[in-house]
Amino acid sequence: MTTVRLPLFPLNTVLFPGLVLPLNVFEERYRAMMRELLKTPEDEPRQFAVVAIRDGHEVAPSAPGLPDPTAVPERGPAAGFGADPLRAFHKVGCVADAATIRERPDGTFEVLATGTTRVRLLSVDASGPFLTAELEPLEEDPGEEAEPLAEGVLRAFRQYQKRLAGARERSLTSDAELPDEPSVVSYLVAAAMMLDTPTRQRLLQAPDTASRLRDELKLLRTETAIIRSLPSLPASELTRTPTSLN
Protein backbone atom coordinates (compact mmCIF):
# COMPACT_ATOMS: atom_id res chain seq x y z
CA MET A 1 0.00 0.00 0.00
CA THR A 2 1.46 3.35 -1.09
CA THR A 3 1.06 6.14 1.44
CA VAL A 4 2.05 9.80 1.65
CA ARG A 5 2.63 12.13 4.60
CA LEU A 6 1.28 15.67 4.34
CA PRO A 7 0.39 18.60 6.60
CA LEU A 8 -3.21 18.23 7.79
CA PHE A 9 -5.73 21.09 7.74
CA PRO A 10 -9.03 20.13 9.44
CA LEU A 11 -12.05 22.24 8.47
CA ASN A 12 -15.77 22.38 9.15
CA THR A 13 -16.37 21.70 5.47
CA VAL A 14 -15.65 19.09 2.80
CA LEU A 15 -13.24 19.74 -0.06
CA PHE A 16 -13.85 17.94 -3.36
CA PRO A 17 -11.34 17.27 -6.17
CA GLY A 18 -11.33 20.09 -8.70
CA LEU A 19 -12.91 22.63 -6.37
CA VAL A 20 -11.24 25.87 -5.25
CA LEU A 21 -10.68 26.52 -1.55
CA PRO A 22 -9.93 30.07 -0.29
CA LEU A 23 -8.48 30.23 3.22
CA ASN A 24 -7.82 33.05 5.67
CA VAL A 25 -5.09 31.58 7.88
CA PHE A 26 -4.61 33.24 11.25
CA GLU A 27 -4.06 30.52 13.89
CA GLU A 28 -0.40 29.93 14.72
CA ARG A 29 -0.51 26.19 13.99
CA TYR A 30 -1.74 26.82 10.46
CA ARG A 31 0.51 29.82 9.96
CA ALA A 32 3.43 27.51 10.80
CA MET A 33 2.10 25.10 8.18
CA MET A 34 2.04 27.82 5.53
CA ARG A 35 5.54 28.98 6.41
CA GLU A 36 6.73 25.39 5.93
CA LEU A 37 4.90 25.07 2.60
CA LEU A 38 6.56 28.27 1.38
CA LYS A 39 9.91 26.51 1.72
CA THR A 40 8.84 24.21 -1.13
CA PRO A 41 10.27 25.39 -4.48
CA GLU A 42 7.73 27.21 -6.63
CA ASP A 43 8.01 24.62 -9.40
CA GLU A 44 6.93 21.84 -7.01
CA PRO A 45 3.40 21.31 -5.62
CA ARG A 46 2.70 22.85 -2.23
CA GLN A 47 0.27 20.30 -0.89
CA PHE A 48 -1.66 19.69 2.31
CA ALA A 49 -4.62 17.47 3.15
CA VAL A 50 -8.05 18.78 4.09
CA VAL A 51 -10.34 16.65 6.26
CA ALA A 52 -13.77 17.49 7.61
CA ILE A 53 -14.08 17.70 11.38
CA ARG A 54 -16.37 15.10 12.92
CA ASP A 55 -15.96 16.16 16.56
CA GLY A 56 -14.08 19.31 17.48
CA HIS A 57 -13.55 22.94 16.57
CA GLU A 58 -11.94 24.40 13.47
CA VAL A 59 -10.66 27.34 15.51
CA ALA A 60 -9.35 26.51 18.99
CA PRO A 61 -10.71 28.66 21.89
CA SER A 62 -8.30 31.51 22.56
CA ALA A 63 -9.81 32.74 25.82
CA PRO A 64 -11.54 31.28 28.91
CA GLY A 65 -15.26 30.67 28.42
CA LEU A 66 -18.27 28.62 29.41
CA PRO A 67 -18.83 26.52 31.37
CA ASP A 68 -15.63 27.38 33.25
CA PRO A 69 -14.57 31.02 32.79
CA THR A 70 -11.24 30.26 34.48
CA ALA A 71 -10.29 27.33 32.25
CA VAL A 72 -6.99 27.68 30.42
CA PRO A 73 -7.44 27.54 26.63
CA GLU A 74 -5.86 24.61 24.81
CA ARG A 75 -2.66 25.18 22.87
CA GLY A 76 -0.75 23.21 20.28
CA PRO A 77 -1.43 21.57 16.92
CA ALA A 78 -4.24 19.30 18.20
CA ALA A 79 -6.07 21.94 20.26
CA GLY A 80 -9.82 21.43 20.10
CA PHE A 81 -9.59 17.87 18.75
CA GLY A 82 -9.32 15.82 21.95
CA ALA A 83 -6.71 13.35 23.14
CA ASP A 84 -6.85 11.31 19.93
CA PRO A 85 -7.16 13.66 16.91
CA LEU A 86 -7.67 10.74 14.53
CA ARG A 87 -11.09 10.11 16.10
CA ALA A 88 -12.09 13.76 15.62
CA PHE A 89 -11.88 13.69 11.82
CA HIS A 90 -13.72 11.98 9.01
CA LYS A 91 -11.53 9.30 7.49
CA VAL A 92 -11.71 10.40 3.83
CA GLY A 93 -10.38 13.79 2.81
CA CYS A 94 -8.86 15.56 -0.17
CA VAL A 95 -5.37 16.75 -1.06
CA ALA A 96 -5.20 20.50 -1.67
CA ASP A 97 -2.65 22.10 -3.98
CA ALA A 98 -1.89 25.66 -2.88
CA ALA A 99 -1.53 27.83 -5.99
CA THR A 100 -1.24 31.00 -3.92
CA ILE A 101 0.17 31.51 -0.41
CA ARG A 102 0.46 35.20 0.40
CA GLU A 103 1.70 36.40 3.79
CA ARG A 104 0.16 39.62 5.06
CA PRO A 105 2.09 42.23 7.07
CA ASP A 106 0.46 40.97 10.31
CA GLY A 107 1.76 37.42 9.77
CA THR A 108 -1.55 35.91 8.67
CA PHE A 109 -1.92 34.27 5.26
CA GLU A 110 -4.24 34.43 2.30
CA VAL A 111 -4.30 31.04 0.59
CA LEU A 112 -5.97 29.82 -2.57
CA ALA A 113 -5.86 26.06 -3.06
CA THR A 114 -7.54 23.50 -5.33
CA GLY A 115 -8.66 20.00 -4.40
CA THR A 116 -6.82 17.31 -6.35
CA THR A 117 -7.24 13.69 -5.17
CA ARG A 118 -9.12 11.86 -2.44
CA VAL A 119 -7.16 10.28 0.39
CA ARG A 120 -7.93 8.02 3.35
CA LEU A 121 -6.67 9.17 6.74
CA LEU A 122 -4.56 6.46 8.39
CA SER A 123 -2.81 8.25 11.27
CA VAL A 124 -2.29 11.71 12.71
CA ASP A 125 0.94 13.08 14.19
CA ALA A 126 0.66 15.99 16.63
CA SER A 127 4.33 16.09 17.68
CA GLY A 128 5.28 19.09 15.53
CA PRO A 129 4.09 22.71 15.25
CA PHE A 130 1.15 21.57 13.09
CA LEU A 131 -0.68 18.32 12.43
CA THR A 132 0.63 15.91 9.82
CA ALA A 133 -1.03 12.74 8.59
CA GLU A 134 -0.22 9.50 6.87
CA LEU A 135 -2.59 9.16 3.95
CA GLU A 136 -3.56 6.53 1.42
CA PRO A 137 -4.49 7.89 -2.04
CA LEU A 138 -7.89 6.66 -3.28
CA GLU A 139 -8.49 5.88 -6.94
CA GLU A 140 -11.66 7.08 -8.62
CA ASP A 141 -13.51 4.03 -9.95
CA PRO A 142 -16.16 5.02 -12.51
CA GLY A 143 -18.54 2.19 -11.56
CA GLU A 144 -21.39 1.01 -13.78
CA GLU A 145 -23.43 3.36 -16.00
CA ALA A 146 -21.54 6.47 -14.88
CA GLU A 147 -22.05 8.32 -18.18
CA PRO A 148 -25.86 8.02 -18.42
CA LEU A 149 -26.10 8.78 -14.70
CA ALA A 150 -24.05 11.95 -15.22
CA GLU A 151 -26.43 13.06 -17.97
CA GLY A 152 -29.40 12.51 -15.64
CA VAL A 153 -27.70 14.38 -12.80
CA LEU A 154 -26.95 17.36 -15.07
CA ARG A 155 -30.60 17.54 -16.15
CA ALA A 156 -31.75 17.36 -12.54
CA PHE A 157 -29.12 19.90 -11.50
CA ARG A 158 -30.35 22.42 -14.09
CA GLN A 159 -33.88 22.08 -12.69
CA TYR A 160 -32.50 22.50 -9.18
CA GLN A 161 -30.67 25.67 -10.24
CA LYS A 162 -33.77 27.13 -11.85
CA ARG A 163 -35.81 26.51 -8.73
CA LEU A 164 -33.15 28.16 -6.59
CA ALA A 165 -32.73 31.16 -8.86
CA GLY A 166 -36.45 31.65 -9.40
CA ALA A 167 -38.51 31.44 -12.57
CA ARG A 168 -37.77 35.06 -13.55
CA GLU A 169 -34.04 34.93 -12.88
CA ARG A 170 -31.22 33.61 -15.03
CA SER A 171 -29.92 30.11 -14.24
CA LEU A 172 -26.98 30.17 -11.85
CA THR A 173 -24.77 28.32 -14.36
CA SER A 174 -25.16 28.32 -18.11
CA ASP A 175 -25.22 25.04 -20.02
CA ALA A 176 -21.89 25.86 -21.65
CA GLU A 177 -20.18 25.97 -18.26
CA LEU A 178 -21.25 22.51 -17.15
CA PRO A 179 -18.80 19.62 -17.66
CA ASP A 180 -19.69 16.21 -19.06
CA GLU A 181 -16.98 13.94 -17.57
CA PRO A 182 -18.84 11.84 -14.95
CA SER A 183 -16.41 12.21 -12.03
CA VAL A 184 -16.12 15.97 -12.61
CA VAL A 185 -19.91 16.24 -12.74
CA SER A 186 -20.24 14.27 -9.51
CA TYR A 187 -17.85 16.54 -7.61
CA LEU A 188 -19.18 19.79 -9.05
CA VAL A 189 -22.76 18.93 -8.11
CA ALA A 190 -21.73 17.74 -4.65
CA ALA A 191 -20.01 21.06 -4.01
CA ALA A 192 -22.74 23.24 -5.57
CA MET A 193 -25.74 21.80 -3.75
CA MET A 194 -26.84 23.17 -0.38
CA LEU A 195 -26.00 20.16 1.78
CA ASP A 196 -24.88 19.62 5.35
CA THR A 197 -21.38 18.36 6.10
CA PRO A 198 -22.34 14.71 6.79
CA THR A 199 -24.09 14.49 3.40
CA ARG A 200 -21.17 16.11 1.59
CA GLN A 201 -18.83 13.70 3.36
CA ARG A 202 -20.96 10.75 2.28
CA LEU A 203 -20.68 11.89 -1.33
CA LEU A 204 -16.91 12.40 -1.09
CA GLN A 205 -16.31 8.88 0.19
CA ALA A 206 -18.69 7.12 -2.22
CA PRO A 207 -17.09 3.88 -3.47
CA ASP A 208 -17.27 4.96 -7.12
CA THR A 209 -18.48 7.75 -9.40
CA ALA A 210 -21.70 5.96 -10.34
CA SER A 211 -22.68 5.49 -6.69
CA ARG A 212 -22.06 9.18 -6.03
CA LEU A 213 -24.15 10.18 -9.03
CA ARG A 214 -27.04 7.91 -7.99
CA ASP A 215 -27.03 9.47 -4.53
CA GLU A 216 -26.94 12.97 -6.04
CA LEU A 217 -29.83 12.21 -8.37
CA LYS A 218 -32.00 11.26 -5.37
CA LEU A 219 -30.87 14.34 -3.45
CA LEU A 220 -31.53 16.68 -6.37
CA ARG A 221 -35.03 15.33 -6.93
CA THR A 222 -35.85 15.58 -3.24
CA GLU A 223 -34.43 19.10 -2.82
CA THR A 224 -36.08 20.37 -5.99
CA ALA A 225 -39.44 19.06 -4.80
CA ILE A 226 -38.98 20.78 -1.44
CA ILE A 227 -38.05 24.10 -3.07
CA ARG A 228 -41.04 23.83 -5.42
CA SER A 229 -43.37 23.53 -2.44
CA LEU A 230 -42.10 26.72 -0.83
CA PRO A 231 -43.68 30.05 -1.80
CA SER A 232 -40.45 32.03 -1.78
CA LEU A 233 -36.73 31.46 -1.27
CA PRO A 234 -33.97 34.08 -0.90
CA ALA A 235 -31.85 32.26 -3.46
CA SER A 236 -29.14 34.91 -3.55
CA GLU A 237 -28.50 34.25 0.14
CA LEU A 238 -28.87 30.48 0.02
CA THR A 239 -26.26 30.08 -2.69
CA ARG A 240 -23.58 32.07 -0.90
CA THR A 241 -21.03 30.11 1.11
CA PRO A 242 -18.78 31.95 3.57
CA THR A 243 -15.02 31.70 3.36
CA SER A 244 -13.55 29.58 6.13
CA LEU A 245 -12.11 31.59 9.00
CA ASN A 246 -8.90 29.61 8.63
From TrEMBL:
<dbReference type="InterPro" id="IPR046336">
    <property type="entry name" value="Lon_prtase_N_sf"/>
</dbReference>
<feature type="domain" description="Lon N-terminal">
    <location>
        <begin position="6"/>
        <end position="224"/>
    </location>
</feature>
<dbReference type="InterPro" id="IPR003111">
    <property type="entry name" value="Lon_prtase_N"/>
</dbReference>
<protein>
    <submittedName>
        <fullName>LON peptidase substrate-binding domain-containing protein</fullName>
    </submittedName>
</protein>
<dbReference type="InterPro" id="IPR015947">
    <property type="entry name" value="PUA-like_sf"/>
</dbReference>
<dbReference type="Pfam" id="PF02190">
    <property type="entry name" value="LON_substr_bdg"/>
</dbReference>
